[in-house]
Amino acid sequence: MTELSVALIGGGFMGKAHSLAYALAPIADDLGVTLRREVLVDVTPESAAAAADQLGWNSSETDWRAVIARPDIDIVDICTPPDLHEDIALAAIEAGKHVFCEKPITNRSDQALRMAAKARAAGVVTQVGFNYRHTPAISFTKQLLENGKLGAPLQFRASYLQETSFNSDPDRWRARKSTGGSGTVGDIGSHVIDVAQWLFGDITRVTARLRAKAAGDLGWVTESERLDQDLIDDSGVWLAEFANGALGSFSVNSYASGRKNRFAFELDASKGAVEFNWNSREEFRVSYLDEPADHQGFRTVHTNGQHPNGWWRLAGLGTGYVEVSAIQFQEFVRAIVKGEPARPDFEDAARIQQIVEAVHESAVSGQWVDIPGGSR
Amino acid sequence: MTELSVALIGGGFMGKAHSLAYALAPIADDLGVTLRREVLVDVTPESAAAAADQLGWNSSETDWRAVIARPDIDIVDICTPPDLHEDIALAAIEAGKHVFCEKPITNRSDQALRMAAKARAAGVVTQVGFNYRHTPAISFTKQLLENGKLGAPLQFRASYLQETSFNSDPDRWRARKSTGGSGTVGDIGSHVIDVAQWLFGDITRVTARLRAKAAGDLGWVTESERLDQDLIDDSGVWLAEFANGALGSFSVNSYASGRKNRFAFELDASKGAVEFNWNSREEFRVSYLDEPADHQGFRTVHTNGQHPNGWWRLAGLGTGYVEVSAIQFQEFVRAIVKGEPARPDFEDAARIQQIVEAVHESAVSGQWVDIPGGSR
Amino acid sequence: MTELSVALIGGGFMGKAHSLAYALAPIADDLGVTLRREVLVDVTPESAAAAADQLGWNSSETDWRAVIARPDIDIVDICTPPDLHEDIALAAIEAGKHVFCEKPITNRSDQALRMAAKARAAGVVTQVGFNYRHTPAISFTKQLLENGKLGAPLQFRASYLQETSFNSDPDRWRARKSTGGSGTVGDIGSHVIDVAQWLFGDITRVTARLRAKAAGDLGWVTESERLDQDLIDDSGVWLAEFANGALGSFSVNSYASGRKNRFAFELDASKGAVEFNWNSREEFRVSYLDEPADHQGFRTVHTNGQHPNGWWRLAGLGTGYVEVSAIQFQEFVRAIVKGEPARPDFEDAARIQQIVEAVHESAVSGQWVDIPGGSR
Amino acid sequence: MTELSVALIGGGFMGKAHSLAYALAPIADDLGVTLRREVLVDVTPESAAAAADQLGWNSSETDWRAVIARPDIDIVDICTPPDLHEDIALAAIEAGKHVFCEKPITNRSDQALRMAAKARAAGVVTQVGFNYRHTPAISFTKQLLENGKLGAPLQFRASYLQETSFNSDPDRWRARKSTGGSGTVGDIGSHVIDVAQWLFGDITRVTARLRAKAAGDLGWVTESERLDQDLIDDSGVWLAEFANGALGSFSVNSYASGRKNRFAFELDASKGAVEFNWNSREEFRVSYLDEPADHQGFRTVHTNGQHPNGWWRLAGLGTGYVEVSAIQFQEFVRAIVKGEPARPDFEDAARIQQIVEAVHESAVSGQWVDIPGGSR
């Protein structure tokens, strides 16, 4: 394998983010293969051509089925709205392509499980755009948990907060469940769930409460009003039990003033603790128990070439959104080259979607809901 | 009323903290009355005399019943272990004294409710040592919520984390429920519940999970093992619904490496948001929606004389633990002088204890548990 | 010695701060002696009586000379405007009293040196109110420099910023050199100089630039205009050489928007580095060279009972302005009890004033100015 | 003009950084022209070919003179060691190419001034790699100073700290002045000077002290020892006067433990203040005077599409080193397309080099040194 040709389906915001990341990934590190940004697919010839031109793709098309059928295409990257994900992914898998799909891979876990099963059967490499876990500080945390340096998992606290829903059109498709809106749990909460499971292992049970915003300067509507009015969840809180006994506490809110895009977590383990905030993503913050009493506390380490996926010898140069996205594609390409599974793959994404649905189910029933299946 | 004489029952750590606070309170501001640190009661004549001498009290005694009976005593301040609180408080109330009691006022809400009822009937002023709420940044947040500047409550996220249980004697009385240990929910979680209700109104329902630490470098024992082994909860997570529909998410852990004493919360409301961390308690951090798009974000305000309970014209001089404790006694004394209820009083504390118990009950049953009673 | 009686001269802001600190100091720790707040002296009988009553002093007087003459007074604490410091201090020294004097002890180093010489000759203990150095995080830094843990001093960067001059009366006495105004270098810069020398050793040379604010929304007037108009310095920057070869960079400004009271420094040494900010004074922040490459960075340690002058076993309880002031008086009283010099004493203060004057001289001459005298 | 072809001279660390930035720049925004990464020049055919392949250039060469002579090349980007900059730049200018040159453009201001004059005469666009100023938070600060929102400049405090010199080879060429080492003032201090002048206007005078590190765990050697031993400056502090009367204070150190790459500044002006730290470069922090007294303080704004050069509608996505470098090339290309000067150009860089040399001169003479020339 000397070359991998990519077809990008969807030239919107996420298509742009992926294009930037593909441009960086092979320059930043030798991936052992040439990555060709071959064709961008969008709805109309004009939009496709304009996007391909602006985003640096060799050609443009409008028929994703025809593109997937092309033998010169190795990777299909899906950046469309979620309701198209399944069709495109299954077609690509069937054609033997490796598939990168933005999250959520679908809003229904049964679809997601089917997609994961098909991909496994076909032997193609899949990956889903839970980009945050590829941050070097998080990868390093994973290493420290795996090699025992942090001890046994005890408690995980996380939140993902935005203020995007203020001043947004209440009639946008994203605001309605029936038109494909994922809600805060599915949209941003899924990132938190991904990282939680990546670091602490399987979540086995959840209990939850969800809310949607009432019109005007008022508070929330109740869960039953929310469902009656076909509203997505704007706010959610849930508890989780992990398979290893650790406890988790999670919060999401898209009506959080001043929170532009704050994904943050804290984890406590039996030998140390870590905290992370995407808004200072270059900082790995860790505390260890085995320090002298007068020197105990959190240390702030700027991630660098001595940490997983760090690109530069000089820490503090700085890692941005595009760079972390590029790391995600480096991981994907390396997995293809090695013939190994990439992570998080469709199977991981299906489990995340199961948890999202369990959160929704619990919000209605008021009961703890078990997550079926188990650790891979 | 020109003078108030205080009897302090208990000369340990908390007795020292109160003594320091009493020393500051009347100097920092004119309370309209002279505060006399009259008598300190402790277990033996020697310990009582030594403590009175060191902590600046005029005299010492060993018999709290006799002291309470003295007509010259106006205030009884209870700093004993929790299992003595009810007896002392009821005796003091019966004698017509105003009572300040450290938290938890008891580990049983039925006792607490009884104490609250007796105090109300007797017309004495009571206050309980939930000191954090008296921090100027929190008092200011309360003002902004009350005057509508922040809009309607939406979400409240809070945690109280310590690492005190590492290296502690597993056989200490505090570590066993049967010997009076309150556990993390009752001990530190109660502070969080107090502030949550003070700011967002009544909590009406909770669901929870609790854990205790297994011996050695291992994870948690399950809830049933915990209860079987007569262990207090070392870790807890719970969700809450507020009467106004807002959601809450809470976490406590006494096995949180690097967290010396971290009490922190974030609240989102429909016009703005506030965050607070006791470890930077002089900072009031607020975001408002109605800012120009290029200037939105959290601002950090150093509290000062222009905020409630600020002592100094010059912000940034700095507020410590003792100063906040002194503010708490200023509030107590002012309430006595005015003949008004102090807050948080026995009634508030009883409700907090009800919530603590609901958290424990839910951790066993796996069900949401309603909190009886309602807003005052 | 079983008792020390204090006479406080001056019942204003600083008299209040000292009163609060005296109230705390002997309760927080056993000082080996009883501290009596005996008499408060102020200008009129009414102001003196009111201050004594509010601030907790046993009696009040208006004639400081008479009070100093009283044999029952052991300590004279001077909180008057600076132009009275010399007279009061010399009288107290002559009467054999120990003297605590607020900073600046004078605005003239020749006076200060004379005062230091008299105190040394009389064998009394003196201390000056450079309170910041008593912060536990700074005391711990001093220890680490002395025991070699941080290696050799390399660079010291410090600033003290306030916004107090905005909206202040331009005709207040503090704003004019001729009416006793110390300017930012003498008033707040002196704190920075004190800590710099305490940690890094003697400053031997300085070069400087100073400015005063022009009226209205304009910039600075030049140094010559400033002196012509009898203005104090509102802004200053200076460089320093330390006796050990280290370099220093210093800035002060009283027109720094948003800076309520920000005293901060960073120091680099050959084995590690420390940074400190009074606005988060409970945090000791240190970096060491000898850490693994993937764990290098600053750690944040909450100071506590395991650090010098920490009062509590539980770090993170919090240290405020009054508590640090109380530590300062604990140090003073302990020195008197032991019969040892306190620090910073009149000699230290005189050297600081020499440096302040060298900064002023350099701002006029444009030359580096040597500081006479040397290390003690 | 529809296409601009770039020749990159030098395929090392900086060549890689530029390659990544060129890959991003035209995708992130429509620059009105196609940017071709045409040819990479390096020392040997092998190194050039390998670098071109890895870094995404169409071809490779070893003879920069031949490449500059090619009519299809529009832009020459110089990433070689500094001693080659002048020859390459002058050849490129003579050939009518636009020139991007890494900093320092030279270590001698006379050369730099000559290069600037030639470029001006030739009418080509030049830009120098002072990348930090292109950070959106800094560009926004520039806007606010220009439109009067912040008022008149008062004080500028800045430092650039690294720990790169610990464990470095003392015999590397960068460590000796005679072998082309720029020292901390020229290497990292120049970035600080660039931003200071960009925001506050011309620096007119400086006074300085410099030091080099002695061998082993010792302190500094003196300035005269440093020059005798042909050492570059490892540490420097200097004061500056700006043309508008503002004061500046600057520090650099490459022996600052824990400082991976910390470029930070604070500025005070008559209506507000701003602070910036590259390690949290997405945060614009500002304080304004005209706020209510109980809401004064610094606010933290995450930069986004509503700020200059922000790429994304969603603030908090995050801006990294490569993204800021890409903004720098966007600015360069836009200037070429518009036929306007880019900033900072060779003229700006020459003035920065004059200031660097004035700092060195002052460190020897002990005198304030005037910077010749003036504002553009």
Quick rundown:
Chain A has helices at about 15-30, 45-55, 65-70, 85-95, 110-120, 135-145, 185-200, 225-230, 320-340, 345-365, and strands at about 5-10, 35-40, 60, 75-80, 100, 125-130, 155-160, 205-215, 220, 235-240, 245-255, 260-270, 270-275, 285-290, 300, 370. By secondary structure, chain A is of the alpha/beta class.
Characteristic terms for this protein:
homotetramer; 376 residues; alpha/beta; Rossmann fold; Dihydrodipicolinate Reductase, domain 2; 2 domains; 6-stranded parallel beta sheet; 10 helices; 16 strands
Molecular structure report:
Four copies of one chain form a homotetramer. Chain A is an alpha/beta fold. Chain A has two domains: 3-131, NAD(P)-binding Rossmann-like Domain (Rossmann fold, 3-Layer(aba) Sandwich); 132-317 and 345-370, Dihydrodipicolinate Reductase, domain 2. Chain A contains ten helices and 16 strands. In chain A, strands 7, 8, 9, 10, 11, 12, 13, 14, 15 and 16 form a ten-stranded mixed β-sheet that branches. In chain A, strands 3-2-1-4-5-6 form a six-stranded parallel β-sheet, with helices on both faces. In chain A, helix 4 runs parallel beside helix 5 (109-122), helix 6 (136-146) packs across helix 7 and helix 7 (183-200) crosses helix 10 (346-365). The first copy, chain A, is globular, with a radius of gyration of 21 Å. The two termini of chain A are 28 Å apart. The mean pLDDT of chain A is 95. Chains in contact: A-B, A-C, A-D, B-C, B-D, C-D. Chains A and C meet through strand 15 of A and strand 15 of C.
